[in-house]
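Revision sheet: structure tokens.
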Amino acid sequence: MSRGWGIRWELRVEPGSLRLEGRRGAQILGAAHASWSTCEELRTAISTLAAEIPFRPAPHRVTVVLARPLIQRRTIADLPRVSARRARAIVEYQAPRYFRVNGASLVIALCGTPNPSEWTGYAADEAFLDAVVGGADHAGLLVDAIRPAEEAAQANLLPPACLAARRGRRRRRARRVLGAGLIISCCLGVLGVSRWIAEARAIRVAADSLRAPIEALASARARMARAAAMLDAIDRAEVDRVAIARQVLNLARVLPDSVVLTGLSIGENETGRMTGLARRPLELVAELDRRQAVRNPRLEGGTLKETLQGRPWERFTLAFGPESAR
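Predicted:
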């Protein structure tokens, strides 16, 4: 639970009801209740709940606890032995296999179990979680974590948009701190040089002595720029890797048995090209487009008819992605 002045604040969300409660030890210092039925009503109820507690200082940080059936829980035992991040990525790619999706986007978290081959998976609707976080933000509450209503569960279901915003705030805060440190260092350097000038040095010597701190500052800024560029490159590479893996999985699910691939290349922005043999290439294009396995599929050039093992085939080249838009 979130702490402030020795007080723990918890927002418990159940189907149709909310409870914001502050405790110090076993003593309840304040509580407020509200009801809701839709995501918009939930957002509004949370945004006004904190003001109903006659307590000062007002709550600032809060932990959200979700009760079933607002959160789904599954035991997942068919994953390879990989890290928690990779295991979650695998589950996210195959979310309908493990959770009820119903056309919604899910936020998924995994927790380890004493059995190394099993995971405990939790999932909740992303739009619902955005409503919870949005209502808390409007009320001036910072959501530390969104957890299942289980004592031992350490899963955190904060939405991706919330996590991205917090990473951005941390980076901006780090830049501000670093900038302040550099400014303070420069000020101390200038102060030291000024005292040195007052004691014995001429103005030209003092000016020369300032060149080194200025160059050090420029070098530090250059290193910061290179580090930022490296981080951006790593983020882009991670996004591309996930997109390519998702593209390959989509193709593997929808390609019929009457198609034999001899080549497959996938580039940035979900562009790519495949070559192979098919009984009816035009039907393959229509099937890929209908099932949205790739974006804007089309045949490049004509097809070449061949006979293999007494059966007619057509050799084709198929491009997809924004560059092959119709």
